[in-house]
Amino acid sequence: MVTQHPDAPLVLSITRLGRRPGTMMAVRRTVDAPARIGLDMEAIERGAPLTLDLQLQSVSEGVLITGTVAGPTTGQCARCLTEFTDHVEVGLTELYAYPQSTTEATTDADEVGRIVDDTIDLQQALIDEVGLALPLSPLCRPDCPGLCPQCGVALATAGPDHHHDMIDPRWAKLAGLLEDQQ
Q1: Does 120 share its domain with 157?
Q2: How far apart are CA 54 and CA 93, in angstroms?
Q3: Matching InterPro entries, A to Z (predicted)?
């Protein structure tokens, strides 16, 4: 059994896994998101339930983690600015290097995760994967018509007869002459 660090739900203790290559353990649980994870317009909010379905495998240089993490997202539509909810599921495949291993010695600090005091912190890997999985311009629905450029009302709720009589500024003077004659 892999235990969870009491203060950080995405920090896993691997003391029971040991350093025997080939040893595997499964982690299947739901935890609260320790921070907001995502982008400006869409993210997993702090405290939202994250479902972890992970396989931890001891390898010669560290611990290989594979599996999925899923959670609900909240966001704001890039076209009509309405709030919406969605769900994101990301796949994780990360190697965490043992202290004093060849992998730790030959890689930069940000290239591979590190095992510190027999614990693995999944938070940065999850931040990276969720950031890549979420769209930069999220939509409430694929065919969102957006906002009316003249009055700003949401076109999805404005109705089919919503329009504005716009006169081309190049012809505005002529339209004024027409009004004077009528």
Answers
A1: no
A2: 9
A3: YceD
